[in-house]
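JOB MANIFEST
job_type = single_chain_structure
chain_count = 1
residues = 161
[input]
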Amino acid sequence: MSRAYLGLGTNMGDRLDYLMKACKMLEESEYITSIKKSNLYETKAWGYTDQADFLNMCVEIETSLPPYELLDLCQDIENKLDRVRVIRWGPRTIDVDVLFYDDVISLDEKLLIPHPRIKDRAFVLVPLMDLNEDLSIDGKSIKFYLDNLTDEERAEVKEFK
């Protein structure tokens, strides 16, 4: 079994429902044997900012799927939950990104592991810290990257209750 970390986000419709449906679909997959969920966080949009706030979370899974097949599963979940790609970093019903997969490093444009923008995104780093503070990129902990973001960037990630 391999261990992977996925980032989930949504800012359209019933955001909580989309996250819960995506998690349920992961849990029901015959290729995933366990799932641990971070807390939920509400965050301002990143990149394209003229859109509603996001709900974000991360999950840690154990899977028998190799990396590209896990990516296919994530994209299948997005499609089943009506994800439409119109604007880069734009509004979405659900986004399911492969952030880490064991110690794999992939520089293929179809699947970049670790996800290339983790280091810059508090909305990913904060929920990852809930799951595993020992994760690292380029020999530096995710806490290092979180600590190097601005106070404003970190403050935009608020626990959702």
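[summary]
The chain has five helices and ten strands.
Helices lie at 15-28, 67-80, 122-131, 142-147, 151-155.
exit_status = 0
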